[in-house]
Every structure is written in structure tokens, then in C-alpha cells.
Amino acid sequence: MNIFIAILILGIIIFIHELGHFLLAKKNNITVTEFSLGMGPRIASFVKNGTRYSIKLLPIGGSCMMLGEDEEVEDEGAFHKKGVWARFSVIFAGAFFNFILALVLAFVITSSAGVDYPEVLNVREDTAVYEAGLRDGDIIKKIDGKRINFGKELDLYFFFNPVNGKPIDVTYERDGKTYNTTVYPKLLPPHYRLGIEYSSETDEAILLVVEPGLPFHEAGIVPGDVITSINQTPIKSGKDMAEYFEANPLTGDPVEITYIHGKSEKTATVTPKLVTSGYELGLSYNLYREKVSPRKAIKYSFMELKYNINYTISSLKYLISGKASLNEISGPVGIVTIVDNIVEQTEDEGVGFVFLNLVNFAMYLSANLGVINLLPLPALDGGRLVFLIIEAIRRKPIPKEKEAMVHFVGLALLMILMIIVVFNDFRKIFG
């Protein structure tokens, strides 16, 4: 069932992408020879008004094939016979429709589940943020000039911009008034860490963040897992966990953790890691959604779309900079695994909760596909747009054979990347 759900999500996203190409091609009187969902041999098709509509065997992929797209054809309906900006609109429409789909899904989420406002929580007096003037209930508006709309945006910002010794400018709101302050991170003394974040306000001791490279992550524990006991001491809430760690500071001794992952109760023994460097803000913030009005749901839907686009772009920069490896990229098989994890971790909350989490994942995938397709790389829509922009500047097209050769090389490299990604997916599954 989860494989079917993953295929359905991918199929809808790809269908919407190809539909964008299709509708703009029809709008510009370009002959579409075939509109298909899937790849490989046809398993069903029919012809209407000169266009063959097909469903193909492999459910990953799709196409909108246009007359004269890759060769010279003496026909008024040929792609290359149309003006440069008409062709630009057809190519750009695929990614644009993915952004529209992501926006619609964002509205479903914000209108149903609400918004995670970036509200400051649990400010301790010995922290850098307390000394800078921040208090419980303040709403973060900007970090170093970057606009913040959601609690998860703070997660994203600090992941790609780890806290170091540099001061951080913070704009926040309190009682309807806006304030600016500068937070000076504190140098941490040597200390032991497990690599988790949680809230003492939650009814269950649910993990909000599990940091890569630290003990909980290495033990296979993930965000969303619920801690039920620590060293055989029952833990029923976030408050219980906070009180436990306050009464039992971490040392180098192993800690036995019992937790709920999906429907299963598991036990792991983790050894706290001694950290001898690093800086701390002491900033804890809200990651739970609050219901909003329909008007605000529309407003925050656009912000959700922007967040997901920024997430994709930041991840690409992270990968290109060498901070992440190709092993961390997931493809279609990895997407099935992620869908399986989403269903497993949320099914106890009911069908509605599972649905919203799947919608949230589909929103990210759709925005991700839109961004990736606009990258100025051969064989992608973005690469074709580059050739069209060059044509608009030169006022004459680049020879078809030269453009085709560039795209062929790009497609070959893309296929090699896909093989690597699929291999990584299977390696992660089977170890």
C-alpha cells in the first residue's frame, strides 16, 4: 500500500508538470504528438485530435512530446516554428505548474493544521538569548536580516548557518511592538550531549530534532519518536524528560532509552558524546502548528511555498559546497521508504494526520521538482530555457544539432546520476 501511495504521489506531481507543458503548447497552437504518464512501453493509449494519450509501464516519469521539438519540421504546428517567448512559456510551464500544485497543497495544510509560529519558549536566565532581552512568548521576525515566518525556518537557518562566535542580530515582536537586539553566543564548556531537542510543554516526550553525528542519530532514533523511559525511569511527557535530565546530568555513562517508533516499542543504549567546543544561544522555539483563519491560511500558503523553494536551493548549495555527499541524495526508491516511514510514524494519530503528513511531503516534492527542473543544466527544462534566452539575445537560434549534442551529453550524465541515486537507495535499505 505504501509503495502504491508513493507511486500515486509521484504520478500526480509528474502529471501536473507535464500538464503545464501540454496546456501551454496547446495555447500556442503547437502540435503535441504524445502526452504520456510513465516511461517505457505503452500499456494503454488512444488518439484524439492528433495527440496520442498514453499510460506506460514504468510509473516513474512522463512526457509531453511536441512536433519539431528536436528536429526541423516544415509544419506550422512545429515547436521550432513558434516565437522564442512562446517556446519559453511552454518549457517554463512545467516547473510553474509544480509551484502551483505546491501552493495548493500548502493551503490544504495551513487551512487544516495551521501554522507553526516562531514563538520563543523556555528561556533560561543563564542563556545568551535571555541576556539579549528575549523572553517566553516573543515572536522571532528576522535572524541576521533574514525574514522568519515559521518555527521550522529557524531550524533550517541554523542547520545551514551553525552558531559560532559571531554575534547574531535578531528582530522580534512582543505585545504588537517590534524590537531589535544582538545575541552574543556563549562558548560552551566541555559537556556531554545526546543530540536531541524536545519541548517540556508536550503531552508526550516527542523528539523534535535529532542531530546527525550524535548518539541518538547513530542509534537510529528519528524525529517524531516518543521517549517512554530513560534508564528504566518512566517518562510520560516532555516535562518528565526535562526533569529527569535536570536531576540526572549527562556523564560518559551509557543511557538506556525506551521509545516508540511507529507502532513498535524499541530499546537502545546510547553513550553521551563529550563535546569540547561549540557555542550556544539557548534559543528554544515552537514547532507546533496553531489554527489560523482562512485569510491567514492563504497568506501563509505562499510563505510555505517560499520556504520549500528556499529549502531546496539551500540543500543544493550545501551539496555543491561539499558539506553533503551524493550518498545523502534519495531517488524514487528512497521516496517510497520515506512514505513508508511517514505512514508508520503517524498512523496511530489517525487517517487525517497521515493524510496531512503525506500532503506536506508531496508539497515539498512538487516544489523540489520545480526548482530542480529550472536548474540551467543540459537535458533539464532550465538548460533548454538557457538556449532560448541566448536565442532571444542573439536574435537567431543555435543550430539544432549543437543544442541536441549538449542535451544528449547532459542526459547521459543525468542517467549516471540516477543510477548512483538508485544504488544509494537500495544500499540504505539493505545496508
List the helices and strands and how they pair.
Blueprint: H1 2-27, E1 32-48, E2 51-66, H2 84-112, E3 120-121, H3 128-131, E4 139-143, E5 146-147, H4 151-160, E6 168-174, E7 177-183, E8 186-187, E9 191-193, E10 196-198, E11 205-210, H5 215-218, E12 226-230, E13 233-234, H6 238-247, E14 255-261, E15 264-270, E16 273-275, E17 279-280, E18 284-285, H7 294-320, H8 332-346, H9 351-373, H10 381-394, H11 400-430
Antiparallel strand pairs: 1-2, 3-18, 4-5, 4-6, 6-7, 8-17, 9-16, 10-11, 11-12, 12-13, 12-14, 14-15
Helix pairs in contact: 1-2, 1-8, 1-9, 2-7, 2-9, 2-10, 7-9, 8-9, 8-11
Strand content: 15-25%
> Low-confidence parts lasting 5 or more residues at pLDDT below 50?
none
Distance between the ends: 23 Å
Shape: elongated
Largest sheet: 6 strands, antiparallel
| Tally of domains | 3
The helix fraction, in percent, is: 40-55%
Question: How many runs of DSSP E, i.e. beta strands?
Answer: 18
Secondary structure class reads alpha+beta
Average pLDDT reading:
88
Number of helices: 11
Radius of gyration, in Å, reads 25 Å
Order of H and E elements: HEEHEHEEHEEEEEEHEEHEEEEEHHHHH
Organism: Herbinix hemicellulosilytica
EC number: 3.4.24.-
Domain PDZ: 103-176, 192-263
GO molecular function: metal ion binding; metalloendopeptidase activity
Note down, in words, how this protein is organized.
Belongs to the peptidase M50B family. This is Zinc metalloprotease. One of its GO terms (biological process) is proteolysis. It contains eleven helices and 18 strands. It has 431 residues and is α+β, with helices and mostly antiparallel strands. The chain folds into three domains: 1-115 and 293-431, no CATH class; 116-189 and 276-288, PDZ domain (Pdz3 Domain); 195-271, Roll (Pdz3 Domain). The two termini are 23 Å apart.
